[in-house]
Myotubularin-related protein 12
Amino acid sequence: EIHVKEPIEKEVNPHLLPGELLLCEASTVYKYVQEDGSNRGTCGKLVCTNFKISFLDDDSASDDNEPQFKNKIVGENDITLQCVDQIYGVYDEKKKLLTGQLRKYPETLIIYCKDLRVFNFCLRYTKEEEVKRIVSGIVHHSQTPKLLKRLFLFSYASAAPNNTDGRNQTVMFETLEDWRDELERTKGNVKYKAVTTNEGYRVSEKLPLYFVVPICISEESILKYEGRGIPIWCWSCHNGAALLKMSSFPKEQDDSTSQMQKAFLDGIYKTISKPPYELLRMDDLSSSLPSLQDIQTAYTRFKQLFLIDNSTDFWATDVKWFSLLESTNWLEIIRRVLKKAIEVAECLEIQHTNVLLIEENATDLCCVISSLVQVMMDSYSRTKSGFQSLIQKEWVIGGHSFLDRCNHLHKSEKEEAPVFLLLLNCVWQLVQQYPAAFEFTETYLTVLSDSLYVPIFSTFFFNSQYQRDTNKSGESLKTQSGPFRFLTVWDWSVQFDPKALAFLNNPLYAEKPKPDRSQRKTARFKHQRQLSLPLTQAKPSTKRGFFREETDHLIKNILGKRIGKFINSSDEPPNSLREFYDSWHSKPVDYHGLLLPCIDGPEIKVWAQRYLRWIPEAQLHGGGTIATAAKILDLMEEVQSLQVKMDEEHSQAVSGDVHSVPLLRNSARLSSLFPFALLQRQSVKPALPTSTWKDLEDEDDLVKRDDEFVDLSGDML
């Protein structure tokens, strides 16, 4: 039985962007959620354009419960074609993956999105001809390989008026001056120089137009092997040590070529190991970190935990959450990447050693590690404009293959890997461990990850600066000549209005105070650390604690075995690294100095906001971090209003600040999934199977135990 609202009497038309064309549509489509065994849905129209798949109902035009955080480009019921992950059809209650030409058309269409939304569309009451058109259209336009120029990016760029200045204080690194300014900012201009050797892309199409190398490197050396074997500068530490990256030579070469390349590399290493340069440490990331294939496999397994069709599926997986989570290996990969970044930071900070990261093209894991190290060591990279400039420098201009890694053109799944998403996951670990150190919020990171699939911005839709520049020039669709004017994702006003933009800024960011030597020690914040599991075996506590010998088998199975792999980890850090890590964590945190993530055991958490935001069963009503934020913002407003009364001369300036933070009234009505979802349907947890209850019969005293530090819900999220 289908419980639905009354079908729409009035015609609802989609809101089309400049350059957006309606391709196909179907009426009397029901969008529904499965709940308690029955299907509840809303009747509407399903449309497909050259930009998105959209569901239109009578609520689309006017919604009384308007969300505070609304995207102006992609609505709640919109799916960009690049955001579609997989499409399934239901035939006689059996799911089948839909690809290519279809002989038979399904009665239900299930769309799984890359931002982890799941849409169920019932086509049982739709006209047969419309079903054929809409299903074929959606599958064709979202799943089949396409040419680059067929992306909506080009249609929008040629039709939309470009009257925005997208820089927003973000350094784009498209000019020689940008690189020289960065060298000067990091005081690296004594030993390194920005070069113009690749102007016209005469060295390599993979290298950026301008980049930085050690002063002693000649132009002939750069030209010899198309930029391979050349150390390229990423960043300089305050003590002069630098972070470098290098593209390696292909491993399978004939002997004479290998000997020549080896001699060339030896010459380069000798040159940059002499004074004034520091000692050099080389790190081949292809051997010390997981492969791109391993990362892709782990993420594919991981995301399945959150692509939930219905309430029953959620509660079925909830019983074995920890074992399912561990089996994906995703959190372990995050831990290994963070550990590698700590190793590099220790070399730069303590050993005063230059670090050279080596990878096949130096555009994947090199980008992850170099970005993480800069976020950890350079407080500028923890501001919003600084972080955006970092992404521009290391990823966009640095030549990360966004087009291939995100598989935007559906040409090759072999090249697909969530490398940029891995970086955002690692940065989120730091943001949630040290929120006051970052000018941006986790909501900022979440919408940045969503923007990977919005093809009106050029930022994440090219493999290199060369590819962008060559496709930027040429004839546009409407005008006979002239370059395309692409938007950059860093102009957030294109997607959000000022009220929503406030959620991207951290109101509790500890801005850098003016130095006062006499007050420096007392001014630092006290670091409140959560208890973490050491990587080495610790002596058992005499108290009745979590790892007490007689701890029941249920808890051991849920957590003990999971954490055991971290305790007895084969890649236990060497003594010097462990001492560096422990020494830093034993001191108060300077939010504008070095930051080291906690990587012990359960300190590595799931990015709850991104992965659980569409699952109503996972929300905490009136709880979660948003409830805390609501109270803090109320308190800030109260303090600011008192300031107005105390200092009437500056009342206008201060009252202006009051409106710079969103007002979250009545936190009890908010959900932990806010701002992406308001209170959603309640879901009643079903009774556990008898066998599960039998296992739990002897565990009724769990809550009475004085466990020292375990918070199951916190670790799960």
The chain has a mean pLDDT of 82. The radius of gyration is 27 Å.
